[in-house]
Amino acid sequence: MAYIPFKKVLVLAPHTDDGELGCGGTIAKLIEQGSEVYYVAFSACEQSVLPQFPKDILITEVKAATKELGIKPENLTLLTYDVRTFNYHRQEILDDIIRLKRDIDPDLVFVPSPQDIHQDHATVSNEAIRAFKFTSILCYELPWNNFTFSTTCFFHLEERHVQTKVNALKQYQSQAHRPYANEEFLRSLARTRGVQINTRYAEVFEVVRLINN
Questions:
Q1: Which of 30, 31, 45, 143 is the most exposed place for a label (fewest CB within 10 A)?
Q2: What are the tens digits of pLDDT across the range 79-129?
Q3: How far is the C-alpha of 211 from the C-alpha of 213, rounded, in Å?
Q4: HSE toward the beta carbon, residue 39, CA cutoff 13 A
Q5: What contacts 212, CB < 8 A, 6 or more positions away?
Q6: Residue 18, burial from CB neighbour count under 10 angstroms (0-12, 13-18, 19+)
């Protein structure tokens, strides 16, 4: 039997697409290696959707994107917090995360960096660290929100993992106007991180806690 480094992995995305942007290639690689990956989005950002799209478009898009990554539909959870209000709902978010901990019991959790300047991202990160303090936690980078980021853990990626990430993010047509939502940026960042570890492609993470069983 092949060794599975992390049997159950939980990705916490404050908003739909954050998880794909921060660790989409790594998700694809972990699933390929046999990990069971769960994805939770706390908001579909209906208040921020451009007027030419249906308000619930991001729900449709995150379902398609996570399918591209290989995440099972039953492993996708969508919560309904309003964008940019998470700091007013810290206790409810913590309660949700504690329920996820109980129901899933992951051995690796991906979250944004606690230094992320978006208030929703910082809230999810801090509450997740509080809930999962006895679990391995890695923070994914979102460079446009990270004034500082400690590049302390790298996942080597192959071309197929990067392409899967690109394909997943192409599902977000409602977000295509954003400067980071394009293949050129995604590949250049993966290439930059790869150069740092003398390989072609990589994704990098900030280590909060890494537990070796």
A1: 143
A2: 999 999 999 999 999 999 999 999 999 999 999 999 999 999 999 999 999
A3: 6
A4: 31
A5: none
A6: buried
The answer to the question of residue 115 being in a domain is yes
Q: Given a cut of 90, is residue 212 above it in pLDDT?
A: no
Is residue 204 included in any domain, yes or no?
A: yes
Tell me, what DSSP letter sits at residue 34? T
How many structural domains is the chain composed of?
Answer: 1
DSSP string, 161-213: HHHHHHHHHTT-GGGTTSTT-SHHHHHHHHHHHHHHTTSSEEEEEEEEE----
Residue whose token pair is 């051995």 = 107
pLDDT confidence of residue 4: 77
- List pLDDT tens digits, range 5-14: 899 999 999 9
Using the predicted structure, report yes or no on whether residue 58 has a pLDDT greater than 80. Answer: yes
Residue 1 has pLDDT above 60, yes or no: no
pLDDT tens readout for residues 143-161: 999 999 999 999 999 999 9
Residue type, 120: D
Q: CA distances (Å), 76 to each of 51, 62, 73, 158, 201, in order?
A: 26, 9, 6, 25, 27
